[in-house]
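Sanity check record (used in CI):
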Amino acid sequence: MLGTYFTRLSNSIGGGWNDFWFQKESPRTVSMLRIVAGIVALIYAFSFTSELAIWFSDGGVLPYARTLRLTGADDPAYRVLHWSVFYFAHSQLHLYALHGIGLISILLFTVGFQTRVVSIVATLFVLSYAERAPMLSGLVEPLLCPVMLYLCLAPCGAYFSIDAWLRDRKSTATVPDSFLAHLAVRLVQVHVSLFYLMMAFAKLGNPVWWNGQAMWWLLAQPDNRLIDLTFLRNGELPTIVYAWTHLVVLFELVFGLLIWVRILRPILAILAVFHWVGLGLVTGHWVFAILMIGLSLAFAPLEVLTAAPESASETTKAARSPQPAGAGV
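Expected output for HTTM-like domain-containing protein:
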């Protein structure tokens, strides 16, 4: 009996692992994620345009040699490689030429033209912007760069793209389900859920998130905020600030854990919109907020709302049919 139990346990774990990673699914989800990542990457890359030469030219604030010195990459004992295509630009002309190629590649990736090739080129440029000056990195890069890498694996131009439009004009063949599409979605899901947990645990290590004052410190910063909510400090309204602070931590913990419960995904996705819209308005990190809201699509929350319920006869038939050994485990 004990040997049978461990056999069933092993089969259950192995089956769950295979079902989680090694399935095929439609590329629709990765195609939606391509649009989200492409829009955010385009905004991110375009934000360098006005001050590109000031930061990255040889006569700028962070020329190639200075970047290597600040990152420690000029030390022979330093084994971390910071690589960027912009290291090859030694004049403003070359710098803006590479910048133009990067913007065009990201735009083509967003609209889905020759996506299998362009996704790799666009990802290289996004990584190049981030690695050209790692000390300037903010909230977007740690999430955008891995998501771009994951999408390179999948046929993310299969739907909602110019490639799909051209394919439909030539033939009526359907797009087959893809193992790589499923793998890319799983990688994004795991990354996003762990990112939520990381943010929550980081907040739990800071006393201002425990005493409820953290949101006030965010509201009080006048430089980046898109809306002024400092009036919440007056009268009885500070209670709202304290509650908001604790709800931020609670939601990030709950999302990271309960997003894997399929029936809860639509509710958590809707709450994520309110969560990130609020934080984006008071912190000014609206690009990061757009990215976090868009990546909720990786969990396909609408699948629960659109799934057809089983009929009573089908449910009764399934209940009466004999189950194989271990099916109830």
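The first helix runs from residue 2 to 21. If this sentence no longer matches the regenerated tokens, the check is flagged for review.
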